[in-house]
Amino acid sequence: MTVNQQILLDNRPQGEAVESNFKLVQSPLPTVGEGQVLVRHHYLSLDPYMRGRMNDSKSYAQPQPLGEVMQGGTVGEVVESRHPKFKAGDKVVGMGGWQEYSLLDPSVPGALRKVDTTHVPLSYYLGAVGMPGVTAWYGLVKIINPKAGETVVVSAATGAVGSAFVALAKARGCRVVGIAGGAEKCRYAVHELGFDACIDYREHPDTKTMAKALKDACPNGIDGYFENVGGYIFDAVLLRTNAFARVALCGMIAGYDGQPLPLANPALLLVNRIKLEGFIVSEHMEVWGEALTELGGLVAAGKLKPRETISQGLASAPGAFLGLLKGKNFGKQLVKLI
């Protein structure tokens, strides 16, 4: 191969993201310089945070630049290396972006690392044993910090983060309740992922009915909440929180198209003395080793069985990404390139 297919962010969304925001192009394969590694991607990761970066607005990360390759996680194989710690054939995970090949500098923190596929499939390093898994670990362990017997709740329960969250929380003796979209996802959450209960938000489309469902699923109240969504679901959870509950604020996908997400009862944060902490997992690289070790162990022991939705070919990435934002995926959303 002498050509590299790439997907660029061509223009910024006006409200809801659409396929015409992206552009598929071809470019020559880059030349490998001293200290660099050329990687052929096997899978690329699609994640909700990418939607926020498409906007030209103030956030925790710089916006995705226009006219450049969409940024994101990738796994693949080294095809050429001029770096002493990498050789052709090494399986690696990195931030290669929406393209078939990437030229990376392993000296940049988080750019590239080798992975062992003996017991963990390569694709899992983009999900359960990758950034989403570490995200679940940090929110649960460092912010919610549950005691055995406590009740914890997670929204987007059957996605990559929620799948890891339940395994980690059950290992700590918690009652774990999920919130997901659709009866099939809720059955999967309970019967395969190990949730004690799962609430279908499509059956409970407002604060009142969601709060009632949470009361039934969490008879002893809610001690910890991992927030991925925002909106009325967050309002309903706050109505059921116990005193000194902890909230790990990871995502607000309900507001990614630009609409505000006001809280209906912010006084509950005070009344219940709730600890609420937002976090970005890439700012906590010091915990990744510990988190990945536990997550890899759960996969190897069969206690973490993540599901994947895989679209084929680079050109399918924009459509798959827009489907992810609407909850059409089941588990971790990937694009298979090879």
UniProtKB/TrEMBL annotation:
Residues 17-335 form the Enoyl reductase (ER) domain. Its EC number is 1.3.1.-. GO terms for molecular function: oxidoreductase activity, acting on the CH-CH group of donors, NAD or NADP as acceptor. The keyword Cytoplasm does not apply. CDD domains: PGDH. Keywords: Oxidoreductase. Pfam families: ADH_N_2 (PF16884), ADH_zinc_N (PF00107). This is NADPH-dependent curcumin reductase. The lineage of its organism: Bacteria, Pseudomonadati, Pseudomonadota, Betaproteobacteria, Burkholderiales.
